[in-house]
Amino acid sequence: MNPIVYHIASGGSFFTGVVLICLAIVLIRMEQRVVRRLGVFLLLLGLFSVSVASTPLPYWLLGLLLSVAFVWLISHVREKWRPWMTIAVVLACSGAAVWEAGYWVIPRPHRVELRAVTIIGDSVTAGIGVPDEVTWPTLLAQQQSLAVQDLSGSGFTTAQALSRVKSAEVRSPLVIVEIGGNDLLAGVPAEQFRRDLDDLLTLLKQDGRQVVMLELPLIPFHGNYGRAQRSLARKHGVLLVPKRIFLDILAPQDNTVDTIHLSPTGHQQMADTIWKIIGPAYEGD
């Protein structure tokens, strides 16, 4: 995967943009014309970097950032406001970066007594049906002595995953959810995705189950899908795995057959990555 594409899809460009914006507003206040022009360039570059990252900040935080930015612009005609508004912009951007950094922390499930896991996913999990394909749920079962209930399906949207779960009995105390990529690529409205995911997580959280959900790597200007995942994860107490973890599996060229679906190497890395996350819950580490 192209490093720039990775930087954007992982959300890293959001932090790059925040740094550039903070640096830019300091430079713009300088007296030297060349320095001010550099500041304007860095400001535009920073705004672009933040925009394409599709970082799903909550609307109240977006509103705060826009309000501070608006007052900062006004401060250019009110000289006495400038120092204070420069500080305000730096603090607001830094606060947004700290907020986002919280979603880069890998969650840890608590201890479970039964060595069983249920997995719900699309073709990244179910595979594409080629001969002798061994998917990562199968590898997880074989290599970690887990009873794996695989409810994934090639091409599944969230609505189809919900239908599958309704027709099956979830038998595990811990559930892994890898779903939503087909909703995003097929253009399912973000609000419909939210409703389907809400229903799915409501069903899965019954009987006190732990749910671990993989966050979607987002394409530019589709932050509403990530915003839905994050808000519903908070609502239902779901452990959300940072999107950079999923992207680290998709990024290496030999891990996929078409940039999305996993190769044998990719399935193995996915199994290893998932075990690093959930393994301590079974081993008591």
Structure description:
The protein is an alpha/beta fold. It contains 13 helices and 5 strands. It has helices at 3-9, 12-28, 33-52, 59-74, 82-101, 123-126, 136-144, 158-166, 181-186, 190-204, 223-236, 243-250, 264-283; strands at 116-121, 147-150, 174-178, 210-214, 239-241. Strands 2-1-3-4-5 form a 5-stranded parallel β-sheet, with helices on both faces. Helix 12 (243-250) runs antiparallel to helix 13 (264-283). The two termini are 34 Å apart.
List keywords for this structure.
5 strands, single chain, five-stranded parallel β-sheet, 285 residues, elongated, 13 helices, alpha/beta
Q: Round the mean pLDDT to the nearest integer and report it.
A: 92
Sheet with the most strands: spatial strand order: 2-1-3-4-5
Percentage of residues in DSSP E strands: 5-15%
| Gap from first CA to last CA | 34 Å
Radius of gyration: 22 Å
Q: Report the principal-axis shape.
A: elongated
Order of helices and strands: HHHHHEHHEHEHHEHEHH
Oligomer: single chain
* Count of DSSP-assigned helices: 13
Please tally the β strands and state the result. 5
What structural category arises from helix and sheet content? alpha/beta
